[in-house]
TrEMBL record:
Residues 188-217, 219-248 form the 4Fe-4S ferredoxin-type domain. This is Flavodoxin domain-containing protein. Residues 6-143 form the Flavodoxin-like domain. The keyword Metal-binding applies. The keyword Phosphoprotein does not apply. InterPro entries: 4Fe4S_Fe-S-bd, 4Fe4S_Fe_S_CS, EFR1-like, Flavodoxin/NO_synth, Flavodoxin_dom, Flavoprotein-like_sf. It comes from the Bacteria. Pfam families: Flavodoxin_5. Keywords: Iron, Iron-sulfur, Metal-binding. GO terms for molecular function: FMN binding; iron-sulfur cluster binding; metal ion binding; oxidoreductase activity, acting on NAD(P)H. Gene3D superfamilies: 3.30.70.20, 3.40.50.360.
Length: 254
């Protein structure tokens, strides 16, 4: 199957996945790939312009984020088949995130041909435990890994030789299930400091799960946690540092 056009599409809360996606984009620029963040709902008709889709996402609680899963689940089944490459960023360990999202892509008639994981700054831990921040960094071998992966990807694109792979199920990831369960159940609320907020509405535009709304009685946006997956994108994009994690924890809705 000749590969003609490539789309790099990603979801990123605090920017690590975006950084890796931008490196893919820059290093493959002679092949003219396009680069976009996912939006929900997504205009799936644009995927018709591409033969190869590279999907990047952070690992949350040992899995792909709900937003990424939703993006793939709502995708039409492709005819003819499309080639897909997957990568994830993670703080400690990607568990079976690539395996599960890879399976979902195959259900959409994608030929999965490459998966990769890159250790990146653990955004949740860095926000929850600021003194530990220096411990959370990109993996030491990230540059080498990226160079090797990009060389492989380039060869696949240029030669159009796409070999289907099956991501490995990591049995030992099951040991992480208690962590995953508690990580999903107990989480933090976000609050806005009205005195700091400059009412720029960036949080409203950045949240793909539409958790932020313009307030009716005040210009300070209102947060609704019903669908929040705690990616902290709003926190990282707030120019006034007005969005904080409240000290109160709560049971997550799902
Ligand atoms: C809600 C949440 C859950 C996370 N769960 C995991 C996890 O289970 N395993 C892991 O290794 N890293 C975990 N991380 C760390 C992220 O995978 C890592 O920081 C990732 O690079 C963030 O990407 P981003 O900067 O593009 O948002 C989690 C981060 C968040 C915000
Ligand atoms: S409201 Fe929740 S889902 Fe939306 S950007 Fe903020 S942390 Fe992410
Ligand atoms: S991004 Fe920050 S400053 Fe801007 S509206 Fe949201 S809370 Fe206020």
């Amino acid at each position: 199957m000749p590969v003609k056009r490539t789309l790099i599409i990603y979801h990123s809360g605090a920017g690590s996945t975006k950084t890796i996606a931008e490196i893919y984009h820059e290093k493959l620029k002679d092949l003219s790939p396009d680069l976009i963040p996912i939006t929900l709902p997504f205009p799936y008709e644009i995927l018709g312009h591409y033969d190869l889709i590279v999907l990047g996402f952070p690992t949350y609680h040992g899995e792909a984020p709900h937003s990424m899963v939703q993006f793939v689940e709502n995708m039409p089944s492709f005819e003819p088949q499309k080639t897909a490459f997957l990568f994830t960023t993670y703080g400690l360990y990607p568990a079976n995130a690539l395996y599960h999202l890879g399976k979902k892509l195959k259900e959409k008639n994608c030929v999965l041909s490459f998966t990769a994981g890159y250790r990146a700054p653990a955004t949740d831990a860095a926000l929850l435990l600021p003194p530990m921040k220096p411990l959370f960094r990109y993996g030491k071998n990230t540059v080498k890994k990226l160079n090797n992966h990009l060389e492989h990807i380039r060869k696949c694109i240029v030669s159009s030789q796409i070999v289907e792979i099956n991501p490995r199920f990591r049995l030992h990831a099951l040991l992480n299930y208690p962590n995953q369960y508690f990580g999903k159940r107990v989480t933090h609320q976000l609050t806005v400091d009205d005195t700091l907020c400059v009412q720029c509405n960036r949080c409203v535009h950045q949240c793909i799960l539409t958790c932020w709304h313009r307030g009716s009685s005040s210009l300070v946006p209102v947060y609704d946690n019903t669908h929040c997956e705690y990616c902290f994108k709003c926190v990282h994009h707030c120019p006034a540092n007005a969005i904080m994690l409240s000290s109160k924890t709560k049971d997550a809705p799902n």
